[in-house]
């Protein structure tokens, strides 16, 4: 599985909004600067997040972006789906829509299990968790194995 730059930037910007506090508007330029992401690209991402109901925008001198829901109710999965669509797909299809035959027939179970595990992580981490600098224990435990930090 690959996390796109768009999804990475979206989650980072949303975490900044969560850290800013409820109802405190943050200009896109300030979000981009805080996370070292390209401002123009972030504007496109924020538009996607607004369209999907993750953030809302306020105009004016003290305008900017705010989370549309409490940070504790927005998961990383919500943000990733808002900008990239389904969490796991194979050849631009959801695993449940695929069919395999012959020696590859059990491969569908691998893709569905992968999706279940990705969801088990991304749907349990909220923006409030990220803003607090922590993740749920179930996710943290997955990082305790030293091998988790390296690609073979």
From TrEMBL:
<dbReference type="GO" id="GO:0003677">
    <property type="term" value="F:DNA binding"/>
</dbReference>
<dbReference type="InterPro" id="IPR036388">
    <property type="entry name" value="WH-like_DNA-bd_sf"/>
</dbReference>
<keyword id="KW-0238">DNA-binding</keyword>
<protein>
    <submittedName>
        <fullName>Transcriptional regulator, BadM/Rrf2 family</fullName>
    </submittedName>
</protein>
<dbReference type="InterPro" id="IPR036390">
    <property type="entry name" value="WH_DNA-bd_sf"/>
</dbReference>
<dbReference type="InterPro" id="IPR030489">
    <property type="entry name" value="TR_Rrf2-type_CS"/>
</dbReference>
<dbReference type="GO" id="GO:0005829">
    <property type="term" value="C:cytosol"/>
</dbReference>
<dbReference type="GO" id="GO:0003700">
    <property type="term" value="F:DNA-binding transcription factor activity"/>
</dbReference>
<dbReference type="InterPro" id="IPR000944">
    <property type="entry name" value="Tscrpt_reg_Rrf2"/>
</dbReference>
<dbReference type="Pfam" id="PF02082">
    <property type="entry name" value="Rrf2"/>
</dbReference>
């Amino acid at each position: 599985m690959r996390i796109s730059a768009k999804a990475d930037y979206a989650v980072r910007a949303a975490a900044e909004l969560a850290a800013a506090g409820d109802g405190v508007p943050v200009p896109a330029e300030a979000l981009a600067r805080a996370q070292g992401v390209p401002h123009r690209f972030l504007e496109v991402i924020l538009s996607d997040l607004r369209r999907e109901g993750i953030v809302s925008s306020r105009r004016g001198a003290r305008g900017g972006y705010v989370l549309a829901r409490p940070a504790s109710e927005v998961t990383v999965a919500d943000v990733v789906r808002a900008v990239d669509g389904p969490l796991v797909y194979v050849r631009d299809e959801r695993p449940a829509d695929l069919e395999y035959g012959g020696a590859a027939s059990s491969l569908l179970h691998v893709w569905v299990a992968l999706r279940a595990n990705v969801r088990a992580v991304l749907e349990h981490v909220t923006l409030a968790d990220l803003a607090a600098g922590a993740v749920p224990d179930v996710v943290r435990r997955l990082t305790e194995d030293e091998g988790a930090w390296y690609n073979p």
